[in-house]
Amino acid sequence: MRQDAIAPGYTSAQTIAVLAGSSVMLTMSMGMRQSWGLFSVPITQDLGISVADFMLAIAIQNLVWGATQPIVGAYADKFGSRWVAVLGTLLYAAGIGVTMAATGSLMLIIGLGVMVGVAMSCTALMLALAASARAVSATKRTLILGIISAMGSVGSFIAAPLAEGLISSHGWLIAMVAFLGLCVVMLPGAFFTGSGDKASAEANRNSTQPDATLTLRQVLKDAAGHTGYVITAVAFFVCGLQLIFIAMHLPNYLALCGQAPWLGATALGVIGAFNALGCYLLGWLGSKYPKHVVLGVVYILRSALIIIYFMLPATPATTLIFAALMGVLWLGVAPLVTGFVTQIFGLKYVATLIGIAFFFHQVGSFIGVWGAGLIVDSLGSYDLAWQIAVVIGIGAGIAQIFANDQPKAGIPTPVAA
Prior knowledge:
Elements: H1 12-33, H2 40-47, H3 51-79, H4 82-100, H5 105-123, H6 125-135, H7 141-170, H8 172-193, H9 197-206, H10 216-225, H11 227-256, H12 261-288, H13 291-311, H14 316-328, H15 333-345, H16 350-379, H17 383-401
Helix pairs in contact: 1-6, 1-7, 1-8, 2-3, 3-5, 3-16, 4-5, 4-8, 5-6, 6-7, 6-15, 6-16, 7-8, 7-12, 7-15, 11-12, 11-13, 11-16, 11-17, 12-14, 12-15, 13-14, 13-15, 13-17, 16-17
């Protein structure tokens, strides 16, 4: 690995181990998370529950994920990422096991909702990007975080077709067994994500950077008073609402439109494939242009795509084109937000601060998944749901473009790579 991409205090081997481990962990964790919508029809039919009941479990998963992310992030900032990620992987598998044993909505909420939600805090984007951000240099950070997100996005290209194929041929329980296998693959990735824990702790002790002396209380106070951070965190709400609405409800929307089940799985796979390109592209753009402007443009473009797609007839062609274009704008937001936060506040409390921003993201996810479920159960149509997603998406995009991006006093202004 090029020396100018390695963070001070890290060896090349440590940096490669962190980045490779984060990529594998994200591939498995996010791949499964993006595929839960495929289980909506078989689980609701098998357990005799409504779509809103199933989506409530997913909504709780996202809310628990967001609520626990700042706590998990603070623990990882203080003690390191390794055992957080490893224990999270084991909890992920346990949550899938409880889901498989479910006989009604309550066990579904406990397993798929609460347990998997906490596990996502320990294994998904925010923790992996925080660990990776520490392992690479400031000039290469946003670009490399984009690459890590791209590698992680491959998961939906693996998990969605796997789940749909097994659901169609053997039922949803066998598909869940396959997901347990993905947890086994995720375990070594989680272990290697923490390869830089000791180097990071040593670098913090020896650092002369202004953020090295900050206390958690002070950085939280500074964050609450920084309008750019506040706007970015609140706008992240819209990101969560739009993405979970599409990921969880697109298969059901296509079923209402009379399309075959394979189209929903294929669309999610296409999103994952093009997301790999999008994460790299947005990471590169974030290293060249103001990150807050790139973020704002992404939110507005997503809203425009949603308008066009839902106003056209749902066909295989329009669905796959929509999935490809939306995939380019998918998870690439995460490295931009991470890079923006480190640009303002430095690295010491990066997992805590992006965890707080991510809480807003997950509140949006909760509303997006459950609220849309209530709307379709009540009205029999997704029209109101996508219209709400569009209006707040455009508003968030405009606010993000004009957000303050100045670093906290004493944090050096970054130089573009």
